[in-house]
Amino acid sequence: MGYGQQDSSEFLSLLLDLLHEDLNRIIKKPYIELDDYDGTNEEKLAKESWDIYNRRNKSVISEHFAGQFKSLLKCNKCNYVSITYDPFLLLALPIPDNNSTIKKV
Known about the structure:
The chain is of the alpha+beta class.
């Protein structure tokens, strides 16, 4: 009741993270900085981000559960666009209750 679902989600996230760290086959994690997005090849940026993640993380958990979020940020004043691909191990999706309504935008 109450926040029970949130507690179980946090437990699962912590468990996956701890298992990943314990099973990670990369002992020395190199620091690799990704270049800024130049506006041309987004697919190349996604692949480079994924390759960098895999050079630091190689476990059974990351091989089966890891993915990437695409984040896009645009400045309204100068129109600068920043695109990043951030890794995740657990994707949390809310379960709607019966009182929820779906609105199409």
